[in-house]
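Q: Sequence in, structure out?
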Amino acid sequence: MDELNISQLNFDVELLQPLQNLVAKSSPFVISPSNIKETYDLIEYIRASNYTDTELKVLLDNNILTRAIYIAKGKKICGDLESQKVLRIACGVMCFFILGGFVIEPNMSLYEKASNSSHDEAVSEYFYFKVADNMHPQLFAELALGIRDSAPAEDIENSMSLVLQNPKRLNENNFAKTLNPWKVNYLFLLKAVELWKCKPDKTEAAKEFIKWMENDSFFNGIAALFVLLLFSPARAPKMIKGIDSTNTEKLRSGIKNCAWDLAYITQWSGFAREARPETIWFLCSHDKLMKQIANTVFPKLGVSQEKVIEQLFTMYWGNKKGLNLFGVYQETVSAIEKKPEQREIRNKQKFLEVDLIIEQLEESLGI
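A: Exactly. Output:
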């Protein structure tokens, strides 16, 4: 393999192809613009990180990170077949990233953790994430492929020793704080749920949401796409858990959790846009809808963003209604892009009102 000798990696080469197949089948990656030819070719990443200036970074969603931490705590892969499958895929992903030389960004997941617990809980989770990140990729490969069901205590202790010997100072002293990417998406979802409950005609509700974004709030393409798909006849089940529930706490929890999903996409796209040319940012998630929306941010080479979004509209709404709503969406985007300076000033003003609008919408929904 040219200058790369797989034996130098201290990894069983016989496990490489099955591992790639496992990860590829679950298709968890969304990638920022790059020259990567094969998304799940691990050798290409090993070569890029070791022999070029390429920097590989990945934002893991909470579902994958918590499962890596589960393994680092010495717990066993068990439960029903689906639970075991998801855990093994998470192990395969961790092997992929450690062996490929990726830098894993865990902070978004830690903020999400703290939002449901505390800063101290998030710091504890960070420690176990570092334990997982320092475990040998061979171990994660064996867990992924069913060769073993838990990490040996000796391996965990060795990894803990490495983490304790080389402690990394956390730059964040309050993981429990409210992040702006989460807050604005929470606002958009509150408005979407209000329309859901008061507008039986979901096509009209979708149009009204876009007009509200344009005239009374600020535009966000990621949230707009999610809400327009939420109102569609082909929407995925439980896009917002509890949306039809009379239990207000269940509804509030569902909206908050969904806002985190959108915040991951927002943060990943921001990281990718601000990165230096040599850096490739990955978003890693099991969530099919999250990946569909994220793929509209940076379409594949040779495919326009407008075409990808149009296809998403027609997939969920059908040709006639899909094209009609796509037209409304594009008109809004065009109007915004014509006056960027005015829009920036207006967005800053509207952002100052976010807390008040959230409070009003929560009161309207009784949550």
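The radius of gyration is 22 Å.
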